[in-house]
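Usage

Read records sequentially. Each one opens with the input sequence:
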Amino acid sequence: MKPPPRIKKRSEWKKAAIVLVWIVASFAMAIYTLFPVRHLEIIRAAAGDLEPALILAVIMAESSFREGASSHKNAQGLMQLMPATAQDVARRMGKTDFKPEDILVPSINIEMGCFYLNRLYQTFDCEELALAAYNAGQGNVRRWLADPETSRDGETLDSIPFSETHNYVNKVKLFRGIYRVLLMFY
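and closes with the structure output:
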């Protein structure tokens, strides 16, 4: 005997619902795996005027959350600070007991990276310029702003001459959007 069509449709609907839930859960697990949210309390405490999603995005772009990361240019830690930059930031923060190896301590690296990025944001009054300066240095950003080929108004960049920096700024902006969504659940 055949079951009534209504029951069959309900059974198909339930299967479709289970598959949909499985797909959404798998997607969410993949996003959380690809975009970890770590050290959030430290980030929130150190962020200053910057949104935590931006700091998470910078860490993701810089080190992919590898705590002992070191670049080919010797930038170190989660937020990839250069040793000379870290020494300068430590001095400006009044950290008289700062040692070069402290840069690998996640809480110190995040605190110093946030301080430095906040200073860049205050200096340039523009998130894109601050991110470009974080990646390529303040001197390069100032040169680009003074060059009519890269800045028509001297205040914003029409183009970023370094492809690495251009890609970095775009990557951080993309990651920030993802982290904004993820942080809605924290």
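Summary fields computed downstream for this record:
- The chain has a mean pLDDT of 94.
- The helical segments are 5-34, 40-46, 52-63, 83-93, 106-124, 127-136, 138-146, 163-183.
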